[in-house]
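Milestone 3.1: sequence recovery, worked example.
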């Protein structure tokens, strides 16, 4: 009686490994988009930092009697101010963080301090991008947008922040990730 070997030959094993390797190489990019995930996570992180900072700012605004000072009209200039520490004074609208002017350098410096980020770049036009950190564009005195590094203000990869519009209202946060 002749004995038969059971199992796979070396050539069959190599073919299976090559086919699996090709499938992994083709399918992996569709399931794992690490760059997009990193951009979305950075926007969610800045959103959480902004929410935490706003909680602190509102608490200080209440203690300093500035929670009802503000304006619903973004063109009016009567903003509140909150002294956070010896060197940081922020503009507020009904107790929450606001912008003192369109892309004001002082606002950007305050945001870097408040959010504890290394750099926020003022986006001056549609071609400007932040090389590192975040880009910021102020739509008006009530609303600003944060962009991850490498994005300009026309792209839909941003955190939109709108300060409170009346006493007792909360600020609005919107993470837009269509182009991330």
């Amino acid at each position: 009686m002749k004995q038969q070997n059971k199992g796979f030959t070396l050539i069959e094993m190599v073919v299976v490994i090559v086919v699996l390797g090709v499938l992994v190489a083709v399918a992996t990019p569709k399931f794992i988009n690490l760059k997009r995930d990193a951009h979305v996570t950075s926007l969610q992180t800045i959103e959480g930092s902004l929410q935490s900072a706003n909680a602190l700012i509102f608490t200080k605004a209440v203690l300093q009697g500035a929670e009802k000072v503000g304006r619903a009209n973004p063109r009016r200039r009567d903003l509140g101010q909150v002294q956070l520490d010896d060197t940081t004074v922020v503009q507020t609208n009904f107790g929450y963080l606001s912008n003192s002017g369109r892309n004001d350098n002082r606002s950007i410096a305050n945001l870097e301090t408040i959010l504890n980020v290394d750099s926020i770049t003022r986006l001056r036009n549609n071609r400007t991008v932040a090389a590192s950190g975040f880009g910021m564009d102020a739509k008006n005195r009530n609303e600003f947008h944060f962009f991850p590094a490498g994005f300009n203000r026309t792209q839909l990869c941003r955190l939109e922040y709108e300060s409170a519009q009346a006493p007792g209202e909360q600020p609005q946060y919107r993470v837009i990730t269509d182009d991330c």
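The first strand starts at residue 80 and ends at 83. DSSP finds three helices and eight strands in the chain.
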